[in-house]
Amino acid sequence: MSNREGQRQRNTLNGVRKRLTFDGCDDIENKRTTAAPETKELLCPKIETTMLEQMARWNFDFEHEIPLEGDWEWEKVQ
After folding, report:
1. Locate the Cyclin-dependent kinase inhibitor domain: which residues (predicted)?
2. Domains in the chain and their CATH numbers?
3. Can you tell me the distance from the alpha carbon of 3 to that of 66, in angstroms, rounded to the nearest whole number?
């Protein structure tokens, strides 16, 4: 791979990175985002509902990062 191709690949990867952690309404409330009050009113209930649904689906408490009882068996990796 040439230097130019490597740089292009790095630029492409930088464009597709995602934030893997999201504190839900806490991010909005703590002004980590510039959401308008109307946006908060619309998003916070949906975020809370989604977090609860995913917690039940994966039997994992994403907020406290602990496994819950359920179908999935979680183990910590290093």
Report:
1. 48-77
2. 23-78 (4.10.365)
3. 43
Q: Given the structure tokens 């809370």, which residue do they identify?
A: 48
pTM of the model: 0.52
Q: Mean pLDDT of successive 10-residue segments in the chain (78 residues)? A: 64 56 58 67 86 92 90 88
In the beta sheet, which residues pair with residue 61? 66
Q: Which helix (H) or strand (E) holds 60?
A: strand 60-61
- Among 50, 52, 44, which Cα is nearest to 25's? 44
CB atoms within 10 A of CB 11: 9
**pLDDT at residue 38 in the model:** 79
